[in-house]
Amino acid sequence: MGPVRNLAILATVVALLAAPGRTEPGSNRAGTTTSLFDQSAERALIRDFNRPGISFLLLDAQTGAILASRWDDPERPIPLGSLVKPFTALAYGEAHAFRYPLHYCRGTATGCWLPRGHGQVDLTSAIAHSCNSYFRTLTANLAPSDISSTTTRFGLQSPPSDAPGSALAGLGSRWTISPLSMARAYVELLRRRDQPGVRQILTGMEESAERGTGAEVDRALPYPDALVKTGTAPCTHGDHAPGDGFTVAILPAHQPRILLMVRVHGVPGAQAAKVAGSMLREMEN
């Protein structure tokens, strides 16, 4: 893991949430905020989250500027699992007049991670519960070329030309994206919240925090108000594990100020959400 960078900035999170429109000195979309703040936040984060299995990026949700990071080479593309699903959904929507299907998830029988299945799902609930069955159906007839305009628009690396539909659904390791590009793609998603398809996706992320795969984030906060997307992907650590969990948490939900992206070694995305919630709670203390 790389060194802890600018962790003291985390002490400003409460101020960011309380002061819409405030931009920290020295921040910009491509750069890093350099101001230093209360050392207690730095000590707390180092004490509780400076563990080899945890990586994180904290971004200003309005500018995309890095506020703090502990991630070894965040610009190196790696599999990010279901974090790709919102962008694949937008690509599908563009080709289908933003009319999304209903689907009945039967769990293992239809290729979902939840053995018993999610039952009937639409796009919003599929995002909330990260339903693999829904997205297998959505991407069954999509080719990598069908999503290239979307990946370009959101600054994401495109999947290889021979990637199967399952890769476009966030399964396997064929589609790799840099964590920093993905975090900033979610910032761009927020900017486009009034565009077709995006509203359903953000509503799904809000439902994820309330009762879906990201519910551990809301449970950790004294005033639950987050947008969350989780994912599980093949492990890319030297100390190999069956998989790594990812969580993108954005808050407050309706006036986003910060974005926290977390990777936790050797656990599923829902468990990474628990770590993200603990980090956000620590920031507020």
Task: Give me the secondary-structure topology.
Blueprint: H1 13-18, H2 39-49, E1 54-60, E2 66-70, E3 78-79, H3 85-95, E4 103-105, E5 119-121, H4 123-128, H5 132-138, H6 148-153, H7 165-168, E6 176-177, H8 179-191, H9 198-211, H10 215-220, E7 227-233, E8 244-251, E9 258-265, H11 269-284
| Proper CATH architecture | 3-Layer(aba) Sandwich
Number of domains: 1
> What's the mean pLDDT score?
85
Query: What's the CATH topology name?
Result: Beta-lactamase
Distance between the termini: 26 Å
Counting helices, strands and paired strands, the structural category is alpha+beta
Strand content: 15-25%
Give the helix tally.
11
The geometry reads as globular
The Cα radius of gyration reads 18 Å
Strand arrangement, largest sheet?
A: 2-1-9-8-7
In CATH, what is the class?
A: Alpha Beta
List the secondary-structure elements in sequence, H or E: HHEEEHEEHHHHEHHHEEEH
Report the sheet with the most strands, covering strand number, pairing sense and barrel closure: 5 strands, antiparallel
CATH superfamily: DD-peptidase/beta-lactamase superfamily
Low-confidence stretches: 1-42
β-strand number:
9
The percentage helix is 25-40%
